[in-house]
Amino acid sequence: MRIASWNVNSVRKRVTHLCAWLERTKPDIAVLQELKATDEQFPRLEVEAAGWRVETVGQKGFNGVALLARQPVEIVLRALPGDPDDAQARYIEGRVETPQGPLHVGGLYLPNGNPIATEKFTYKLAWMERLRARAEALLADETAFVLAGDYNVCPTAVDVYDPKAFAGDALCQPQSRAAFRRLVNLGLTDALRAGQPTGPLYTYWDYQAGAWSKDQGLRIDHLLLSPKAADRLSGAGVDKSERGKAEPSDHVPVWCELNLD
DNA sequence: ATGGTGGCGGTGCCA
What is the pTM of this model? Predict the structure, then answer.
């Protein structure tokens, strides 16, 4: 089973790329972020025609996440628990049956958090604590899971092309990294790093200042696996080719493969 | 080079 995540930066602008990517890579489950569309605005017919079931948590203008699947998926959450007043569309979680038992797939768009001296950063940190609590609850049930998406955290200095330039950025704050470690240290596996423990492994290049042509990227899109899912991990990667296309998203897809036969 | 680009929505906000 292949599980992929992609921050598409407007699903309406990217629907052609999205469908071509689905056809080319054929993930069993794909989670999308930054739809920048309401549920009604999502190009549902095009994606369904390509062969995927579509579940969306949309929002006007900003945020928005989706879960696409080739097989039936039971949606178990359309928001991250822990704050009933949080109206931002940033989380979706589905449950699929596999030969190895149920698997939960969470698709998440973690708050950016800039600028750090504002409530945006405290919201980010609170959101990360809620995500940790959700992972802990799934672990307590011994539910196998993959939490995939745009985490908006560069876990270490190697994950930033210029650590000094990002010293004041929410993506690289010690508090952001500590919160990410608290999540991973529950016993999760960072699927991309499992296959490539060292060196740059960027998933995002800014549109500005020729970042892509200069390979000035960040690693902020991650797939975190529960122990049971990690037992079955057979591969993972970054689909860098998408960034070189015309009118690309600023993020590229990331994916992992689980052997669940 | 204290800028630069892109998306949304129709002006500044967000990334």
Answer: 0.97
